[in-house]
Every structure is written in structure tokens, then in C-alpha cells.
Write a structure and sequence with these properties.
Helix content: 40-55%
Shape: globular
Structural class: alpha+beta
Strand content: 5-15%
Bound molecules: protoporphyrin IX containing FE
Distance between the termini: 105 Å
Number of helices: 17
Radius of gyration: 25 Å
CATH superfamily: Cytochrome P450
Order of helices and strands: HHHEEHEHHHEHHHHHHHHEEEEHHEEEE
Length: about 475
Amino acid sequence: MVTAVVTFLAVALASLRILRTSSSKKMKPLPPGSFGLPLVGQTLSLLRALHANAGEAWLTRWVAAYGPVTRLSFFGCPTAMLAGASGNKFIFSSAALTPKATASMSRMVGRRTIRDVSGDEHRRVRAMMAQFLRPDACRRHVAAMDAEVRRHLDGGQWHGKATVAVMPAMKDLTFDVMCTALFRLGRDGKSEAVRRELSTEFQQLVKGISVIPMDLPFTSFRKCLAASRRGRRAVAGIIQERRVKLETGQSSAADDVVTHMIAEGLPDEEIIDNVMFLMIAAHDTTAALLTFLIRYLDTNREAYDKVVHEQEEIARCKEPDEPLSWEDLSKMRYTWAAALETLRLVPPVFSILRKATADIEFGGYHIPKGWQVIQPMSTTQWDAAIFPEPGRFVPERFEDTSATPPFCFIPFGGGPRVCPGNEFARVETLVTMHYIVTRFKWKLAPGCDGSYARFPMPYPSQGLLIDIEPR
Ligand code: HEM
């Protein structure tokens, strides 16, 4: 009898434990939302909204309907979308989320970039790039950037022109700044030819990043793939030339990022992938920032006058041909606040994209392994509770950046993957704005309304046409 009672109690206790364990392990529900139509999901609807510059409104409606953690289907992938500061914090800190490149991006740039590696490998490649992007390195880039910016503005694209298409001009400028400062491409005949070849191929291949990767005859994607192959060959040529120089003692690892990667023993294929990635990351984003800053200053005269005043004060203390110094840049506080406000309103990178490498839980929901996780920047940067009157251009918001709540303003990302080029972008933006503001006056050209679309990088209609005159 006693044995029977003990056995009964033991079985009852064990069942209770199993029940308790299984209920505590009970899976949380999937986030609310909808996967939409099979395969298509919300892809076309969101892309259409982005192309019509209504992406923010689309997201606002979605979040209002389903909440801050939702599910949807994007490019055929089940996707969790996180909105809000806690989502931002989570995405930048979770070890179970890794960066995800779109299929088109991987085909254009390569599969072994800094974005595709993690852990020690990631830290190693990042450290190699940081040698040339840290504030002390950027300080050394000021003179080269100054010369390159003047070359562009005093040359045929601006000087003597009545109308300028800003975005194409800024892409050319930032491409050259990057070639000079990061890759140390010279201006002799051979280097000039390599520069122009790279520029042509990159203009073509970046278009391939935002299209559906269908490699069929006569498609724009196939043309972009061909440009990518030619671009890779040109980069391979640079590596070969730099290796000979390094081995014959004509250069050192400190000279430029390519020589540094060779000296560190990174395989050539990885150097090519990383150079391809850097070339895109370094020039398109900053070109977008400069273009939209010029656009916002045109329509906000008070901010424009303050920027002009700040830059003229600096110019007044210099000889006519004296280049800008690091100390001059530290005086450009209002101009940088205007640039930050531009990044809030039109972040060049629309959304952070990650992939879940394990099942995760966030905000009371289950996000299964393999899902992609996106976090559009506008969900905090356009939130009226964080940035009152979010549609207004108010650089004063960023005169004291410590007043911005954490994880709400994230144009450069955050956490271990935060953009390592943010200081480079700051210096380049300030040098460029100094010379534009002190050399020219501008206004939108008749017929140019300043509207823009996203592909997903923001691109103004007509490239943002402005009429300019010398100051
Ligand atoms: C206004 C200009 C720029 C903006 C808005 C910007 C934005 C971003 C963002 C949001 C990320 C993080 C993406 C993520 O977490 O998934 C990123 C990463 C990165 N950016 Fe930038 N960027 C800019 C300029 C630059 C420049 C000038 C360079 C190089 C010279 C650069 C190099 C990189 C690299 C290498 C990464 C990858 C970092 C990693 O995965 O560890 N960026 N950028």
C-alpha cells in the first residue's frame, strides 16, 4: 500500500514538473501582422510607397494597425519589423542577429565583405578599415579632401555653370574624395584612367543593388553584373600593383587601406569584396547627405543664413588659398547640426537589415530562426513624441546632441556594427559645404520641385537641379 502511494505521488509530481516546464517553454506567439499574398507579400506595396516617397506614411499605417513588433513578408522572406527605441536597442545588441545582405547586394559586391563575417573575423577586418577612418586618420585626410573638393568646384562641373544637377555632381565628388583619401589613387595618366574606369563601373553596378536579381539576357541586372566583374578586375589590378610596391619597399602598410589589407595577409578575393563594399558605403551615402542638405538649406532661409555666417567667419580668418584645418572643422557646429537634421529627415540608409541565426523573443513575441528582421530608421526619427514637428527642418535640435534620447537617432546604425565611416563622412561634408557656401548662392531651378524617391537610397527628381551664381 505504502509503495503504491509513494509511486502515485512520484508520478503525480513528475507530471506536474513536466506540465510546468512545458507551459514555461510554451512558445510565445508570432508577431501580429500579415504575410500578404504568397511570395509577393508586402514587397510591391512597400517598394511602390518608397518610390513615391511615401515610405514613412506606409510604415506609420502598418505600425498603427499592428503595433511596434509585427510580421510581414518582404522579398519572399518572412520578416519581423521592429519599430521604436527598444527595438533599435535590441537589434544593435542581440548576438542572435547578424547583418543580412540582399541577394542583389551580394551578387554586385561579393560574399566575403565586412558585412558577411562575424566574431573575430569581423573585428579584424573592421580594425583594418578603422586605421584609415578613425578621427586621427581623418585629421590627416583634411588636406587631401580640401584639395579634391576645390578641384571639383573650381572645375567644369560647378565653376562657370548656371545650373548643376546636385546628386550626380556629389556622387562624382565623393567618389574622387574616397579614391584620393582612402585608396591613394593618384592623378597621373594611368591612375586617372583607373579612377574613371572604376567610377563608370560603379555608377552602373550600384543600380543592380536595388533591382530584383534576375540574371536574364538584356536585363538591367545582367548589365550591372558585367559592370561588377569589370570593377573587380580593376580592383584586382590595384592590388597587384600595390603588392609589388610593398614587396619592393616602395610603400608601407600605413599608406592606404589596400596595402594595409595585403600586409595583414587578407586573401585577394576578400580584399576585392571589401574594397567593392567600401566604395559603395563611402560615396553614395555621403553624396545623398550633401544633396539633401543643399535642398533643405534652399527652403529654410534662417538655417541657410546661419550656415553662411558660420562659414564666412571661418573664411574671413584665412588667406584666399589656405586650406581648411582640423581646428576650422571644430568651429562648424551649426553646419554639422544642419547635416544631422538632414540625416534625421532623409537617412541615406532606410532600414537596418538582420537575419535571426536562432529563435529569439522580443516584446512578448517569437521570432523564428531564419527570419529577417528589419528596423526602419524613420519609426523613431519621424516620431513626433521624440522629435516634435518631425517634418520640419530644425538644426537646433542637434546643437546639443546629448539631449537626444538614446537609440532614437540612428542614421549611422549602432552597436558593434555602427558605421566606422561616420567621422570620414562628417569631415567630408563640412569641407564640401564650406566651399559650396562660400563660393556660390543657389536656388532650386524652375521646374525642379525638390521631391525625391527611394530605391531604397533617396534620389531627388532630376538629380536636384539648382541654379547657381558666384558669391
Ligand atoms: C552619411 C554617410 C553615411 C551613412 C548615413 C552611413 C550609414 C551606415 C549605416 C546605417 C551602417 C550600419 C548598417 C547596419 O548596421 O546594418 C553603416 C555601416 C558601414 N559603413 Fe557607413 N555610412 C556613411 C558613410 C560611410 C563612409 C564614408 C564609410 C567609409 C569611408 C562607411 C563605411 C561603412 C562600413 C565599412 C560599414 C560596415 C560596418 C560593419 O559591418 O562593421 N560609411 N553605414
